[in-house]
Amino acid sequence: MIVCVCKSVSDRQIKACIDAGATSMEDLQIDLGVALCCGKCGPYVQEMVSGASPCCGRSCGGGCQSIRVTAASDVVVAPPLALAA
Ligand code: FES
């Protein structure tokens, strides 16, 4: 899954970078260039590097249930909620 659209960086690349020793957002910015353009990927990348479960990257307060990543290559996206009639 592409995490940083601006730089075409995938979750696998980020995970590999973390596995290779990156320990901070700065490391990932230097190594992969993530979160240096529009910045929308920043919260997600930050959660990956901090070991937290990445969520939607929006201001959900960390309680987001829309996206859960159990492994870098295993992204599960919940179906959209039914619209009220
Ligand atoms: S999506 Fe990563 S900087 Fe724009």
List the helices and strands and how they pair.
Elements: E1 2-4, E2 9-10, H1 11-19, H2 25-32, H3 42-50, E3 67-71, E4 74-77
Antiparallel strand pairs: 1-2, 3-4
FE2/S2 (inorganic) cluster binds at residues 4-7, 34-41.
Instruction: Count the domains.
Output: 1
The name of the CATH topology is Arc Repressor Mutant, subunit A
Backbone shape:
globular
Alpha carbon gyration radius: 13 Å
Describe the biggest sheet?
2 strands, antiparallel
Tell me which ligands are bound. FE2/S2 (inorganic) cluster
Strand content: 15-25%
Note the total helix count: 3
Strand order, largest beta sheet: 1-2
Class based on secondary structure composition and strand pairing = alpha+beta
Tell me, rounded to a whole number, the average pLDDT.
76
Name the CATH superfamily classification: BFD-like [2Fe-2S]-binding domain
How many angstroms separate the termini?
A: 33 Å
CATH class: Mainly Alpha
Task: List SSEs in N-to-C order.
Answer: EEHHHEE
Contiguous uncertain segments of 5+ residues: 65-72, 74-80
| CATH architecture classification | Orthogonal Bundle
Structure notes:
With 85 residues, the protein is α+β, with helices and mostly antiparallel strands. The chain has a single domain, classed as BFD-like [2Fe-2S]-binding domain (Arc Repressor Mutant, subunit A, Orthogonal Bundle), CATH 1.10.10.1100. Helices cover 31% and strands 16% of the residues. The protein is built from 3 helices and 4 strands; from the N terminus they run ββαααββ. It has helices spanning 11-19, 25-32, 42-50; strands at 2-4, 9-10, 67-71, 74-77. FE2/S2 (inorganic) cluster binds next to loops. This is (2Fe-2S)-binding protein.
